[in-house]
Amino acid sequence: MSANNQSINTLHNLLDHDARKFTCGEIELKGKLHQWISDAGSMQLKMVLQKYIDIVQQHVDKFESFFEAEDISSLSFSNPVMEAFIKDAGTKLALCTDAAIKDACLLATIQCINHFKIAAYGTAAAFALELGMEKHAAIFHEAEVNEKQVDDRLSQLATYEINRKAKTHFTLHE
For the segment 120-172, what is each residue's pLDDT rounded down to a tens digit? Predict the structure, then answer.
């Protein structure tokens, strides 16, 4: 039975399945972040996204120890949730005709993805802890904390720059 069709009949199977999916999602996201950096107009947003690429790569690297311990050699999954976020972002960004609005759209998209990842990593940490996998629970918890820190930075950027510029630009064009 392939990894994509493997039965999920234990909490351990569910953790393995979810870990494959969110790791594939991280890989998909990392590829898209490079393009989104190019699309961003705000230098601050570009810098946050560049740092986010490094965090995403750190997550993928650290999850490898989980996969080695679990004897998981294939990540041949796709992540339909991440794919939907990326597709929706592409659709909305294509409709944005103003740089300030595009930055607001891009930041909001990243935060939606970020919130999804916070939930996924928190759940994985809880599952791993329940299964007595403290080392791996710590890895997933660290990823959750990293995502919360990114979320805080994105919220600050939205409040003090991106959303203000988008609102000001809209007000000037009314």
Answer: 999 999 999 999 999 999 999 999 999 999 999 999 999 999 999 998 865 44
User: Binning pLDDT at 50, 70 and 90, where does residue 77 land?
Assistant: confident
Tell me whether residue 136 is in a domain: yes
> Residue 75 sits in a domain of what CATH number?
1.20.1260.10
Q: With beta carbons less than 8 A apart as the criterion, state whether 117 and 79 touch.
A: no
* Segments forming the whole domain that contains residue 27: 10-172
Domain assignment present for residue 4? The answer is: no
Whole-structure pTM value? 0.90
What is the tally of structural domains in the chain?
Answer: 1
Q: What is the DSSP string of 106-145?
A: HHHHHHHHHHHHHHHHHHHHHHHHHTT-HHHHHHHHHHHH
Sign of the CA dihedral 111, 116, 119, 121? negative
